[in-house]
Amino acid sequence: MATFVDRYPDEAAVVKATFAVAFASLGIGALFGLIQALHRTGFVRFISSADYYTVLTGHGVLLALVFTIFFLMGVFTWAIARSLEQPLPNIKLTWAWFGLTTTGAVLAAVAILGGLVPSVDMSADVLYTFYAPLQAHPLFYIGLAMFIVGTWMAGADWFLAFREWRSDHPDERIPLQTFMVLTTTLMWYLSTLGVAVSVVAFLIPWSLGIFETVNPLLTRTLFWYFGHPVVYFWLMPAYLLWYTVLPKLAGGRLFSDPLARVVFVLFLLLSTPVGIHHQYLDPGIAEGFKFIAMTNTMFLLLPSLLTAFTVVASMEHGARQRGGEGRLRWLGALPWRDPAFTGMALAGLMFAAGGFSGMINAGMNINYLVHNTLWVPGHFHMTVGTAVALTMMAASYWLVPQLTGRRLYSRPIGLLQVVLWFIGMVFMSNAMHRAGLVGIPRRTAEPQYQNFDFSAAFGSVGELRIQIALGGVLLFVSIVLFLFNMLLSSIEDPIENPVDDSLVEPLSGADASPLVLDNLRLWTGIAVVLVILAYTLPLGSIIADAGLLGDSPGFPVVVDWFGALAEVVGWP
Ligand code: HAS
Ligand code: CU1
Fold this sequence. Notes:
Elements: H1 4-7, H2 9-40, H3 49-84, H4 91-113, H5 138-168, H6 176-207, H7 216-227, H8 229-244, H9 246-249, H10 257-270, H11 287-299, H12 301-321, H13 339-362, H14 364-370, H15 375-404, H16 411-438, H17 461-489, H18 520-546, H19 561-568
Helix pairs in contact: 2-3, 2-4, 2-15, 2-17, 3-4, 3-5, 3-6, 3-15, 4-5, 5-6, 6-7, 6-8, 6-10, 6-18, 7-18, 8-15, 10-12, 10-18, 13-15, 13-16, 15-16, 16-17, 18-19
């Protein structure tokens, strides 16, 4: 079969463009990460503590939002074209969403980096969660809004491709990769409503001076309505690669297609009604609502635990096809010299730990110990920083040759890169978790409080500082190796024979699952109901307490009919 770039040259061009933006963001964001790690541990200070927040905002936006989402849009475009076996319906629409998302990302980045240029009256030191009452330059919010609209257009592009395919294949089951893209996109449409309302209805007019104030708890709750599901928007493309590519690289077959569909339906249903688990310590939200968010979050462990089972079972199947034996000795039969395989496997391994720390976060009472401490960055450097980011880098070693028709410059450098990433992250995230338990705060240029010394229960704070700095340096070296390998691969000699992007049939196929799993309307309808149940009362009581725009004079506080309703139903 011809290489992807020969079958779908237009789509390959867009995917390469999204990867180029993703990798550029990765490089700049990683440089900021190195600066932060050395600054906060006190080893080397390249910037002032006042500029620390600009750099931290750049690090979070460029890595957590831009790198991940551009790469994801590339992977989803590749997955739609290859699994539907047809080009996208309108390549102009495809380039249009790429142009809009890129323009939006550049505007937001300009607003952030403006903060580093004293003569420029522009800044966005609001961190990647852009909480009010911190305020950014209007360009930051306008760029964000354009970026979100661009992702909505990308989703429409993928749905139009599916609709075209469906008219030619009325009775077939949705191909698995397309099923994964569509369920993820539906979850994204539902969850981005929160951030779109927050940015467009409140933060842009506020930053332009049209509104004097906003209701910070309202905009923050609307952010977290989106803020938890966005982590799964990052994770689900990694899962798409773990489910559909990793088994092939392992030499085996996916254990169960039906289980994969159940996992993605669960993410569509449960990702959004949990966001208040980021706000356990927020005053102004009743404990009952927080308890519901915690309960929903515990349900949300299920799709990932199912993934752990299915993906490891598929890897074991591959190992045994290679002659692997024994209860665990089969691990040795896996293709550990392949950077794409090893990177994804190590990403999964670290996600097991990252997911465990997520469970700790999710417990309302134990969260009081870790919230706003360095524990939380420890958690998300294992999740988005490794489960997602390392999977995306590792998958590039397998994907990029299909998109360019050129050889990978160096597999050994690729293998060194993924192992270095894993080792660096073990040092950094482990030390961050332990530092969090000691009480060291997150999101501060100076990691200590006045007249107060932290004392670690075991080891020392000094040792933690060294581990974080060492980890940060190893991660930065790993990114340099990755970008170096990608750059030289783009000018490598063309490959003579086609790059095989065929994927293996699962051991248990789609037909083994009930047809209702493919009823996306049904699952979307249930997801909407769950969101209404989870968010109507909390948002209503936040608005009833302090109005849509906070205590700004002259803006009528909404009649407290939510309070009355809560009383009627005997709500706490
Ligand atoms: Fe989280 C905070 C709870 C998953 C990202 N999280 C964050 C923040 C980020 C983030 C960015 O409940 C900080 C936000 C901020 O700036 O304030 N998180 C969870 C829970 C999960 C979870 C319960 N988080 C993620 C993922 C992320 C992510 C995924 C990014 C991609 N998180 C929280 C909470 C907070 C939080 C609270 C707020 C903390 C606070 O107070 O601020 C779950 O989804 C985790 C489920 C995962 C598992 C692991 C399953 C294991 C698997 C690996 C299989 C192994 C393989 C390979 C494939 C149960 C799937 C094996 C290899 C071989 C060789 C065999
Ligand atoms: Cu979350």
